[in-house]
Amino acid sequence: MNVGKSSLFNALAGRAQAIVDSTPGTTTDPVRLIIEIEGLGPVVLLDTGGIDDKSTKLGERRVLKSVNAVNQIDLALLVFTDNNFGPYEQDFLETIKAKKIPVILIHNKSDLTPLKLKIEDHEIIDFSAKNNNTAPILEAVKTVLNKQNKKPKGLLDGIVKKGDTIILVMPIDASAPQGRLILPQVQTIRAALDLNAVAIGVQVSDLKQALNQNPQTSLVITDSQAFKEVNAIVPQEIALTSFSILLARQTEEFEQMLKGVKTLDALKDGDKILILESCTHTVNECVDIGRTKIPNLIKNYSGKNLEFTIIPGLQELPENLAGYKLAVQCGGCMITQTQLKNRLLTAIENGLAVTNYGMSIAYTNGIFKRSVKIFKK
């Protein structure tokens, strides 16, 4: 049944972004669009295919994509029409609730069939794409998201205080973006400014000079790829960690990542490892951290014949995770906390240990304890 999801999507977007047709199944692959909602900020709208077409293999694949999209969202707008909230909608509602994702029910085409249905514990918003009155929906969206948006722990909270001097080691190499810093570096600089701390940015070659000029330095934060070189330069009395580990600390799975990295000591021939690289970018295979450097570090450290699977962007994890022992997640700076959490939980629920890039690099270089010591105060 065509319930008008894409019509609602276009109404919220303020333009004809998604194809609208009376033919059921018009939307196949999810359509994404970034919009700005006053009082909330930038949000990503995601228009999925339907959930009731299981008559063909193609229909089943379309439904699976819609179900998998749940792992990427912070809020669901579940659309139905003609007062018909059937088994497909009920099953999908239960799937959303199981993920602890808030949901708003939308009864569409109210100009044809006024809302009469009541669903226990759920308010329903009556909507008609004919008049495009999205105000009640937007107000509900703002209320729900503002309520659940807890301010995350600051990157440097608890480890840096006002007046501290910290040094950020930011290599400008073949993997560095042209003309800008990467997001974790920018976020860390902002976090230092928020705390009225002094942040000094250097490359590895200038680190020794910076330390000599700033003997009061309390913390050095490095790109994880430079851990080994930086560790050799920074005196033991100065704390050392990485941008990647700082990002991991913001997740609820931080402690599990700290424990999970020890799985590197228990790997056997034939074990499989997931590399979760949340960026989507063209790469030079020789220098890419996720596709080349970390697999090589792990293989050299373990001495085992291992199989690595690279999962870029928000691509779904393999359906069959049998044989996988470990998932190594990047910092996750380009995805939301919900998306990151759901990727990690999928791995954990399937029996995989989880860790992240910075921890695995520190561990294989013998400096893991030093790299996380500052968080154990």
Describe this entry's structure for a reader.
- Residues 255-374 form the Hydrogen maturase F tetramerization domain.
- Pfam families: HydF_dimer, HydF_tetramer, MMR_HSR1.
- GO terms for molecular function: GTP binding.
- This protein has 377 residues and is an alpha/beta fold.
- Helices cover 34% and strands 18% of the residues.
- The protein has helices at 5-13, 57-68, 87-98, 135-148, 183-194, 207-213, 227-233, 243-249, 254-260, 289-302, 337-349, 357-364, 368-372; strands at 31-37, 41-47, 76-81, 103-108, 124-126, 165-169, 198-202, 219-222, 239-242, 272-277, 307-312, 324-329, 353-356.
- A 4-stranded parallel beta sheet has the order 7-6-8-9, with helices on both faces. Strands 11-10-12-13 form a 4-stranded parallel beta sheet, sandwiched between helices.
- Strand 8, helix 7 and strand 9 form a beta-alpha-beta unit.
- Helix 10 packs parallel to helix 12.
- The chain is globular and about 75 Å long.
- Mean pLDDT is 88; it is low at 17-23.
What is the fold's blueprint, element by element?
Blueprint lengths: L4 H9 L17 E7 L3 E7 L9 H12 L7 E6 L5 H12 L4 E6 L15 E3 L8 H14 L16 E5 L13 H12 L3 E5 L4 H7 L5 E4 L4 H7 L5 E4 H7 L4 H7 L11 E6 L11 H14 L4 E6 L11 E6 L7 H13 L3 E4 H8 L3 H5 L5
Q: Provide the gyration radius in Å.
A: 24 Å
CATH fold naming of the largest domain: Rossmann fold
Shape: globular
Structural class: alpha/beta
Strand content: 15-25%
Helix content: 25-40%
Mean pLDDT: 88
Number of domains: 3
DSSP summary: helix tally: 13
Q: Order of helices and strands, N to C?
A: HEEHEHEEHEHEHEHEHHEHEEHEHH
Flag low-confidence runs: 17-23
By CATH reckoning, the class of the largest domain would read: Alpha Beta
CATH homologous group name of the largest domain: P-loop containing nucleotide triphosphate hydrolases
